[in-house]
Amino acid sequence: MKTARKNATSKRNFEPGPVVVVGSRDKPEVAKALDQFHDRLQRDFGIAAIDLDGTLDLSKVDARWLLLFGGDGAMLGAARRMGDAQIPTLAVNFGRLGFLTEVEFKTLDQALDRIAAGKVYVRERQRLSTEMGDWRYNALNDVVAHSALRGRLFRISAAIEGREALRYAGDGVIVSTPTGSTAYSLAAGGPILDPELEAIVITPLAAHALSQRPLVISADQTVELYIKEDDPPGRITLDGQVQRDFDASHRLKVRKAENPFLLIRVGLRSHYTRLRRILGWGGRPKGSA
Fold first, then answer.
1. What mean pLDDT, rounded, does the chain reach?
2. Alpha carbons 26 and 97: distance in angstroms, whole number
């Protein structure tokens, strides 16, 4: 029986070199942070490029690593813009939650010390490859199929390895990576997976049948989503950022992507420390009154 497993090649050594810096010009704190660290980044690593407008083709930048000033949404966008040319990424949290970000701004100096000394490593995070005709994108968090008509019951089928396995009626279905298990899937009642597992999570959204529960399958398997002729139209949303209409003429194939996202780990905090802080395990959730 196939089961979710750890990726045996998920840990890579890291050699520092030229960096591409990505952030948002709309956030004054990002520009301030870049001004503060610009000279050090140039001296210790060399700056290959700076993109504060989101217009740079990150798949063609000649850089050894990427430094991101932003939150989880910025991280998802950068991963998508790198395409198949994924380079190790360190994210400095300027967002609200920071599930994907590695360090806070106050610890960036310490993180750069470790990077310059080569005392960090790179972890692979599974992505999802989606294909619907000529439309192809990769997702780091999730693929969501949902109704295009507000307030309408949405029916959708899911085939696993070519055989229909599930038929959902409700608001839709989420297909997520282990990384994305702490995103929309978690809010819909899905399980939390170790982000270094190789697996796919299928989570129903507000399912009409109470017997329908989240399902975890092997990352080696392919999931196909489709709706039938008499079903209302839907929409596909990738990582909350890319959308495409979805009807009975489409079959969306979702499988493990060949090229994983590469996350620089500097060892200042663990994934579970981050979960405990954000989810308020043993205390009050962050941001609550």
1. 90
2. 19
